[in-house]
Amino acid sequence: MRDSARHGPSRRQLLFGGAAVGAAAAATLGAERAGLLPGSDAGPSADTAGINGERMVPFHGAHQAGVTSTPGAHATYLAFDLLPGTDRDRLAAWLRLLTDDAARLTQGRGALADLEPELAARPAGLTATFGLGREAVARAGAEVPAWLGPLPAFEEIDALEERWSDGDAMVLLHGDDPTAIAHLARMIVRDSRSFASLRWRQSGFRRAYGSDAQGTTMRNLFGQVDGSTTPKPADDAFGAAVWAGDEAPAWLRGGTSLVLRRIAMDLEGWDEVGVEGREASVGRRLSDGAPLTGGSEHDPIDLEATDASGFTVVNPAAHSARAHVSDPARGIVRIGYNYDDPVEAGAVDTQGRPAVSNVGLLFGSWQRDVDAQYVPMQRRLAQADLLNTWTTPIGSAVFAIPPGCEEGGFVGETLFA
Amino acid sequence: MSTRPRFLATAAVALASAAALAGCASDTASSEASLTVEDPWVKTVESGMTAAFATLTNTTDADLTVVAASSDAAPMIELHEVVDGDMQEKDGGFTVPAGETLTLQPGGYHLMLMGVEEPIVAGDEVAFTLELEDGSTVGFTATAKDFDGANEDYDGESMDAESSH
Q1: I want to staple A301 with a disulfide (CB 3.0 to 4.6 A). Which of A202, A219, A291, A339 is the partner?
Q2: Nearest to B22 among A58, A100, A122 (CB)
């Protein structure tokens, strides 16, 4: 929805009648089922097709489908450590097995040796995206990108825990049905036992399928519209930011990288902040995600605009000011999921009381080159970002995301070429 | 790409999709293409006994019977069925009626590998040959998968051969 004219409603309508206007707009635009077409840039629209369980995202293609498709309502990340005996040949065998599981289950078919193939029958847009850490690429004997490994320490903000960090390989499952995700996750961990051990597992969610019109920007658990500026797959900016080209090792071209940060959010501290402070911390309105400088959600933010007293409308330390990148090729594409996990035994909040929440964001980002795109932005945010007051990175991992494969091939095959 | 999945009651997989294997199990057509083998897999084993499974489809208008199976992975393979939880050799082999499909699956018909000496590990590709009643053969390659089920095969109650466990 870059075309604000299509939105039409005034700021007043958006502020005071947002829900009704949104529903009307959705009804108008909703004849087609956005999300069926990977890369569709039609913007938010309602799903009028009814049953969503049968929806399938094609597995095979030049890129891995989990990168090019609209993020589903649910996501599970699985990270593995390779067993000592998993050499180059065994690594290839593992990737073949996992690719086969994913190729079948994403298309509504049981896996080989699947005793619950009934669970496969409702993929609901299920995708599987495979990533490799430095150790896996090294064992394959392929060129290791310089950025593949732990991020530099961001000492101002990091409180990283090993149990949420790193890994030799990663699978991201996302789709609209958590049952389908659970079944594929189970097949993947079962088929991995001879090759790798599960290092960590992290799950997250957005609004349930059907709660919002398709294409609506997610909200995080601070209530903020989160990810307004992130390009859609059909945008030129998406390709410029995401797909590795000639500068990358040959095996990675058509692939990308994933940075996953587990960011704990201090909801109790956030409770103490009023609406104005909350909006100032990001530079966007809570109601609809529009920049504080006006317009609607996808209008550009004006970081130069000043108010009557001469101060910039957007605080220079606001998140959107600090994260701002003008050149799309230097930007990132975000894929975020909320988490809301049980409070851990003995946990306390910032006031020393027994904790009552354990929530945060699984912040994922796709980019060609972690060092050139992610790290400079993260450095700026570590140095100054009002949101840092209430957010703490507690997990961090980086993976290379190989290109997709065609039928008969397997994801990661380019490593062994 | 169709947006409608096939609904399957068993591990059998629709034929039209069989070519979409992601690269492991490969199907080898018989010399006469009379019997097709889909989704073959074999349970991993250190040594001794294990089982292989697949979906067999008879594309002809006459019944076909598999009378024997062989593989370099095992000196002996028997055609087995499970009756009331007990495994036994299937008298007369596996008959696949004209135009129909027979699924070899845990708890049912299977190829019983005996005397395996070299470990079959996850991800291995194991070649098999089926022999039909008329003397023709059908080859296929099964993917090895770790699998905790199919243990009825190994109880040894009705078996003379020693258990590997």
Answers
A1: A291
A2: A100
